[in-house]
Amino acid sequence: MTKIIAIANQKGGVAKTTTTITLAHAFALKNKPALVIDFDPQGQSAIALGLNPEPGVFNTLVAPSPASQQWVRDCGREHLSILPGDRSTATAQIVLNAENRPLEAISLAFKPLLQKYDLVFLDTAPSVGGIQERAIWMADYVIIPVATEYLSVDSLGKTLETLSLLVQRGWKGKLLGILPTFYDQVTKESRNAMAYLQKEFAKQLLAPIHRATILRECAADGQTIWEKAPNSQPGRDYEALVKTISKTQ
Q: 54, 67, 186, 231: which could form a disulfide with 84 (CB 3.0–4.6 Å)?
């Protein structure tokens, strides 16, 4: 059965895209077919994998047809595929809202494409407005990356509120956990943010992803951490997260 995991936060710059492609490639390397769907209008999941953004999400949502599979792209990595998005995704959101499409709209449009994959990872836009909520509605689990800095931690409550509202409307998914990112135990701000998260969200908190220059280099080179430095600190951090996801039912 396909497991769908949304990576979501209403603030940008918290490593949503890095987390999405890193997890997807990790499972692909374990011979588990994985698909990334890029719901962010910036199209950065494709870029981070060395591909070009394309209007795949727009065409699947606005003009759905059996041919939607044609928008799935091979990433040049065994068992890993992507359904890319680009700036037209923002237009798709306008269309969904103008036509008053239900929360199930994205689920209905995309689920026929997902049966061949063991895991599907959704890279969501850093804002509410229609796309993010409908993408989360399709997900079985949500991971909320939170940079260990004041402004990012402050935005966490808004994302949790969105999940709560979706639960009230019948969402059957679960919060898999809150993922601290860019953790740097040397800086006071990062330590304070981590301490706050540990105090307020102890039961939901995942092990942190440490700040590392290598992750920025991966994005610039269109590679994942598994191709560039799998034994680095962030490689070990993400491997721990992969093990946590593997235990979910």
A: 54
Domain boundaries, the chain: 3-246
H or E element in which residue 108 lies: helix 105-114
Of 119, 126, 120, nearest in space to 106 by CA: 120
- Indicate left, alpha or beta for 28 from its phi (over 0: left) and psi (-120 to 50: alpha): alpha
The string of pLDDT tens digits covering residues 165-179 is 999 999 999 999 999
* 88: region left, alpha or beta (phi > 0 left; psi from -120 to 50 alpha): alpha
CATH (residue range 3-246): 3.40.50.300
Residue 130's region, left for phi above 0, alpha for psi from -120 to 50, else beta, is: left
75 φ, ψ to 5°?
-90, 5
- H-type helices in 139-174, by residue range? 150-168
The whole-angstrom separation of Cα 167 and Cα 227 is 38
